[in-house]
Specification:
480 residues, mainly alpha
């Protein structure tokens, strides 16, 4: 049965990213500006995932019938998708009525459009957010396999999201159109619900057996409660950093790419989801075997920062590579040969740091879940904190960091957040002796200092904005 449920969770992740891509396209017709539509859909998506993870995580610990609850969640998502054309028409009518009666300015109009769209999309995204903590109750029966099983679920769902992002961004919408693509995603959710209902009929679901205290004991329960609280909040800040990186790297890569369309943004999202999934797969088995997970958490945080700083220097040479490729393009090469090489390069650039980011979820889940009775609640809290951090991170990077600091200083600032988390994790580690803490921290500081002193200058985009010999740059300023 677990293999079937993994396949269903794969389909759930696939459909979610199909919806997200279509909603961004659909709401751009309402807002008239793609950036507002993207910000609205992503904010609603993240907020819904956070609330759903928190609420349904607590609910499944009380109800203790996770299979039935998962079927209801999938059914609710499918029904919303089927009714979307009708409900979206009603939303457009409401926008029009408010516009005619209120006569507000441009930004005030966008603000109430944002509020209505946000609450409209909060319903299905909350249902999506509840699926991971609910299925975790089915898969995790012993704490000794918590890390590998949660990591498996997380990576399978992200793998589905990866395929959904690629299919919808590059093929489905082009071949079928938006409405038919959404119906394909809805069919997947209906299929999930039907299969689960059949499983329930074949084998009546019973309330989960109470786990004995001996079975519940986690090797990491020796960690003081203050350290566990630190890891929880550090993971929220990690969510802030991850989405800030995504916005910053998107801003940088937009300067390289000839293409500013849905294909480019699909590539960015695809790269991030791939890294999160692959990193989770790599670390899942290791999590249950290692005792000093706090040290592993610290190492991963430091590697995220180091790889992000190395990328900043590496980005400068990307333009030279692309320029050489573009000189070789011929009319007969075709779109995929020309643009596909650029997308592949962007993907490879972002895959390394995002893989490290993907390692954090199984590690944090194992550290912060000392027993199984509150498994759903704790995983819901972890997902909630990470997603709230992601919302703040994407907003802060786009509206505060880049406009005021520029891309170089913004990326360095976010990298320092990961470094600080890593150093604090080393300092708070009760399994690490003092004679090891000092040299580890000193080595980290030395490496970061070398990387910081070799960062590109603040005029980051000057390298390719003066094209011909003798051109002189008169003015340079970075903005959102």
């Amino acid at each position: 049965m677990q293999l079937i449920l993994l396949l269903l969770f794969f389909f759930s992740g696939l459909s979610a990213l199909v919806y997200q891509t279509i909603w961004i396209r659909q709401f751009s017709l309402v807002f008239g500006v793609d950036v507002f539509a993207t910000a609205t859909v992503l904010t609603a998506f993240m907020a819904g995932l956070a609330l759903g993870s928190y609420l349904f995580g607590r609910l499944v610990d009380r109800d203790n019938r996770p299979l039935r609850l998962f079927a209801l969640l999938e059914l609710g998502i499918a029904v919303f998708a089927v009714l979307f054309p009708l409900s979206f028409s009603g939303l457009e009518w409401l926008y029009g009525a408010l516009y005619r009666s209120l006569s507000l300015g441009f930004y005030a109009t966008q603000l109430y459009r944002f509020a209505l769209a946000f609450f409209f999309l909060l319903i299905p995204t909350m249902l999506m957010g509840g699926t991971l903590p609910v299925l975790s109750r089915i898969f995790v029966k012993r704490v000794t396999v918590l890390g590998s099983n949660v990591g498996k679920l997380y990576s399978i769902n992200n793998l589905g999201a990866l395929i959904g992002c690629f299919l919808s961004g590059f093929f489905l919408i082009r071949w079928l159109g938006q409405h038919s693509s959404m119906m394909v995603a809805a069919l997947l959710n209906f299929f999930n619900a039907i299969v689960v209902l059949i499983l329930l009929l074949l084998k009546q679901e019973k309330k989960s057996e109470v786990v004995s205290p001996a079975d519940e004991q986690n090797e990491e329960t020796l960690l003081p409660s203050r350290v566990i609280r630190f890891v929880l909040w550090a993971f929220a800040i990690e969510g802030f950093a991850a989405l800030a990186y995504e916005v910053i790297w998107t801003r940088i890569l937009l300067g390289f790419s000839y293409d500013k369309s849905l294909y480019f943004f699909s590539t960015v999202i695809f790269s991030f989801i791939f890294g999160l999934s692959f990193g989770s797969i790599l670390v899942a088995k290791m999590v249950d075997r290692r005792k000093n997970l706090l040290l592993l958490f610290a190492v991963v945080e430091i590697l995220i920062a180091v790889s992000a700083l190395v990328l900043l220097s590496g980005f400068v040479s990307v333009n030279n590579i692309l320029s050489e490729w573009r000189l070789q393009y011929r009319d007969a090469d075709g779109w995929w040969r020309c643009m596909g090489k650029e997308y592949l390069l962007f993907f490879l650039i972002m895959a390394i740091p995002t893989t490290f980011m993907g390692m954090t979820f199984p590690i944090v889940s194992k550290i912060c879940t000392p027993h199984l009775r509150r498994l759903g609640t704790r995983l819901g809290e972890i997902g909630f904190l990470d997603t709230v951090g992601s919302i703040v991170g994407s907003f802060a990077a786009g509206f505060i960091l880049i406009p005021f600091l520029g891309v170089i200083k913004s990326a360095a600032f976010v990298a320092m957040i990961n470094i600080i988390i890593g150093i604090l994790a080393v300092l708070l580690n009760p399994f690490l002796s003092k004679r090891w803490k000092a040299p580890i921290i000193a080595s980290v500081i030395a490496v970061v200092f070398v990387l910081m002193t070799n960062l590109p200058d603040s005029g980051y985009f000057r390298h390719w904005q003066t094209k011909r010999q003798g051109d002189r740059l008169l003015f340079y300023q970075e903005g959102a």
